[in-house]
């Protein structure tokens, strides 16, 4: 597997995370608004969580199971979020996920980053299908998926338990064009 390439868009550089990003990740992903609409981000986001998370990226990339990118602003390289694909190679399929620090919401950054990683997934990783899902109460994420060309595939009722409450999940998919 070749090295994880940099992805460049109009306003963003997507690059692999480094351990030196950990404090910044902790500050951004540690905001409760991020944990509220994601499944795997814990509140509180304790010391060491970011380091552990970042350390999994390269081994899993080499195994072909994961590609995660730090979303950074051009030209100064300021870290504002994360975007990734969890790959199921046997099906040439991946699940897209992302978060953006709250102060950069609603400026199109998640969409711009997601479009870039989708292109990379299809063109370079040879994926056939990319899918994504969000809590039904998180329509902003659904907008990102639609703006990336994904198709709404339906709602799974009470499919996950989040903080003790069963929640509906909206699902989207995109087939290699
Ligand atoms: C979801 C998230 C990644 C969106 O990031 P972002 O950079 O603000 O996304 P974009 O600016 O590209 O697009 C957001 C869209 O949602 C829309 N939106 C925002 N709040 C909304 C709401 N309450 N209802 C409906 N649409 C909403 C925006 O208007 C925009 O759509 P538009 O371009 O058609 O106007 C960000 O809110 C986030 O990190 N949330 C917490 C983590 C999370 O939920 N991750 C996704 C898990 S599935």
Q: Which molecules other than protein and nucleic acid are bound?
A: coenzyme A
Q: What's the oligomerization state?
A: single chain
Mean pLDDT over all positions: 97
- Roughly what fraction of the amino acids lie in strands? 35-45%
The rounded Rg comes to 15 Å
Write up this protein.
This protein is α+β, with helices and mostly antiparallel strands and 177 residues long. It has a single domain (7-175), classed as Aminopeptidase, CATH 3.40.630.30. Helices cover 29% and strands 35% of the residues. It has helices spanning 22-29, 32-36, 49-62, 109-123, 139-147, and strands spanning 7-8, 12-15, 66-73, 79-88, 93-100, 129-135, 151-162, 165-175. The longest helix has 15 residues, at 109-123. The chain is globular and about 40 Å long. The model has no long low-confidence stretch (mean pLDDT 97). Coenzyme A (COA) binds at residues 34, 37-38, 98-100, 105-111, 134, 138-141, 143-144.
Tell me briefly what this model is.
The protein is α+β, with helices and mostly antiparallel strands. It is 29% helix and 35% strand.
SSE topology sketch:
Blueprint: E1 7-8, E2 12-15, H1 22-29, H2 32-36, H3 49-62, E3 66-73, E4 79-88, E5 93-100, H4 109-123, E6 129-135, H5 139-147, E7 151-162, E8 165-175
Parallel strand pairs: 5-6
Antiparallel strand pairs: 1-2, 2-3, 3-4, 4-5, 6-8, 7-8
This protein binds coenzyme A.
